[in-house]
Amino acid sequence: MQITAAMKMVSAAKLKKAQDAIVAMKPYAYKLKQLLEHLSAALGDENVYNPRKGEVRKVLLVPITSNRGLCGAFNASVIKKALELKQTTYKDKQVQLYTIGKKGNDVLKKYDNIIAHNSEIFDKLTFATAAALAEELMELYTSGKYDQIVLVYNSFKNAATQILTEETFLPIQPIATKAKGKELNTNYIYEPSKQEIVEELIPRSLKTEIFKALRDSVAAEHGARMTAMHKATDNAQDLKNELILTYNKARQATITGEIIEIVGGSEALA
Asked: TM segments (predicted)?
C-alpha cells in the first residue's frame, strides 16, 4: 500500500507538467492541422504528402505505448486496437508495424511484422527527437514504401479518462473542396513559393503532429498510472482491514482457548 501510494504521488507530480504541456500545445497543433488540410487541397499533385492515385495496398501502423507498466489498460488498449485494425479495417492490405514504446513492442513482436522499434524517444522527449521520428516516417511514405501511415495512441482528456485515437498521419487528407454546398476558397497567394511551402512548412506541420501525439500519450500514461495506483492503494487498504479483522478474530480465539484451559486445570486441582 505504501509503494502504490508513493507511485500515485509521483505520477500526480509528473502529470501536472505533462498536462500543462499538452493543453498548451493542442490549440496550436489543431489550427496547424486545419491549415495543412487547406494547403493540401490547394496544392494538389504538387504536394508529395497528398494521397496517391490508385488503391492503398501497403499500410504502416504506429502504435504508441509506454516503456513502463502499472498503468491499467493503457497499453493493452493500444495493442488491442492495432491488432484489430490489422484484422478488420486493413485485412486485405499488407500491414506492418513501427512500435513506439517498450510495452507495445514486447507483445507485438511475436507477430513478426515489426519493421522498427523506438523506446528511447521517451527518455528525453523534445521536438528534435519527435522531428527525427517524423522525418523517418515521412521518408517511408514519400519513397513509396507505404501508401498510408496510421498512428494509434491514447489521447489525454483528464486524469481519469484517456481516449483511444486512430489517426492517419500520412497521406494528408485534403479538406473537401465543397462544404455545405459552398465552394471553399483555395485560391491562395503563396509567400514564399509553393515549392518552399511543400519543402518547409508542411514537414514542420507533420513534425508538430507527431510531437503532439507523443506528448498526448505521455500525459495520458501518467493519468492512467495515477488512477491505477489510486485504485490499487484503495484495494490494499481494504485488504489490510480484512487482515486486521482476521488477525483479531484469531487472537481472540487463542485467548479464549487459553482461558478455557486455565479454568479446566483449576477445576481439576480442586
From this structure: none
Residue type, 25: M
- Coil, strand, or helix at residue 73? coil
> What does the alpha-carbon distance between residue 223 and residue 229 come to, in Å, rounded to a whole number?
10
How far from chain centre, in Å, is Cα 143? 27
Which residue from 208, 190, 209, 213 is spatially nearest to 47, judged by alpha carbons?
190
Environment class of 261 (CB within 10 Å of its CB; exposed 0-12, middle 13-18, buried 19+): exposed
Residue 108: name the closest of 69, 146, 78, 70 by CA.
78
Which single residue is written with the C-alpha cell 486496437?
A: 81
pLDDT digits (tens, 9 = 90+) for 215-226: 999 999 999 999
Residue 249 grid cell? 478474530
Kindly list the structural domains of the chain, giving each domain's residue range(s) and its CATH number in brackets, ordered by start.
1-229 (3.40.1380.10)
Candidate from 117-131, 177-191, 235-249 with smallest mean pLDDT: 177-191
pLDDT band, residue 118 (cuts 50/70/90): very high
Own/partner contacts of 26-30, CB < 8 Å, gap of 24 or more, are 26/212, 28/208, 29/208, 29/209, 29/212
Strands (E) across 101-198 are located at: 114-118, 148-158, 161-170, 178-179, 182-183
Phi, psi of 5 (to 5 degrees): -65, -40
Distance CA 238, CA 57 (A): 53
Sheet holding 148-158, edge to edge: 114-118, 94-100, 58-63, 148-158, 161-170
CA 76 to chain centroid? 10
Of 117, 119, 143, the C-alpha closest to 58 is 143
